[in-house]
Amino acid sequence: MIGNDWDAILASEFDKEYFKNLQEFIINEYKIKTVYPKISEIFNTFIHTSYEDIKVVILGQDPYHGENEAEGLSFSVKTGIPKPPSLTNILTELNSDLGYPIPKNGSLVPWANQGVLLLNASLTVVKDTPKSHSGKGWELFTDAVIELINKKTTPVVFVLWGSDARNKKSLITNKIHYIIESPHPSPLSAYRGFFGSKPFSKTNQFLEKNNIKPVDWQIK
Q: Are the beta carbons of 76 and 108 closer than 8 angstroms?
């Protein structure tokens, strides 16, 4: 049980055959391998951000695969864990865009608690093995989540960083929503258009235009 409106919204998805197969696979993976995040944190993004409260979606690929980094929110790491390069670049762009100081802390829970759904395409990963749980069924589930958000009658900002996230653009068909896309914040691509893209100010400008409370992006 997630503990908010997602339980009812996702009930039919949880009953589908692919999800039951995925669940069986994931439970076994946790038994025989080191998998991140903790099994109790897999659905953290939904726990922190109810369906009703969503005003921004930031899409990632899969959780960080380093030891104790992932906390069930895309691009976020637990408090006290060194920031991975992609997150460092995100916070560098935030500093450039809105002038907020770059924090020592890399947990994005404060964003999630304001209606920013930090969603990975795959919700689990084997330690030190990127995309190890891709193609196992998670994408079917998270695509369904995106389609459900697309049906919302209040405007949502979808932030698509990198080709994997931008491939989800076809699922976002509702004209009331706003899509922001750029290269991935990874060091391999950040200088190809992520830096200088100003996603945070653009998001808040759209929210304010639609009489929605803007996000306080500052991490303290």
A: yes
DSSP state letter for 77? B
Q: What DSSP character marks residue 219? A: -
* CA–CA dist 211, 103 (Å, integer): 29
List alpha helices for 54-184, DSSP H.
85-98, 109-112, 138-150, 163-166
Distances (CA, A) of 82 to 3, 9, 66, 78, 107: 30, 35, 10, 9, 10
Task: Write the CB contacts of 39 (distance below 8 Å, at least 6 apart in sequence).
Answer: 30
Q: What's the average pLDDT block by block, 10 residues per block, for the chain (220 residues)?
A: 97 97 98 97 98 98 94 95 96 98 96 98 97 96 98 98 93 98 95 97 98 96
Q: DSSP string spanning 116-134?
A: EEEEESSS-EETTBTTTTT
Chain centroid to Cα 4, Å, comes to 18
- Cα dihedral 54, 103, 201, 70 sign: negative
Q: Which residues are catalytic?
A: 62
**Using N-to-C axis directions, what is the helix angle for 199-209 and 85-98, rounded to 10°?**
60
**Cα–Cα distance measured from residue 188 to residue 168, given in angstroms and rounded to the nearest whole number:** 21
* pTM (global) more than 0.90: yes
106 vs 97: CA distance, rounded Å: 18
Q: Which pLDDT does position 1 carry in this prediction?
A: 87
Tokens matching residue 203:
């998001």
User: Exposed e or buried b for every residue in 84-104, given b needs 16+ CB within 10 A?
Assistant: bebbbbbbebbeebeebeeee
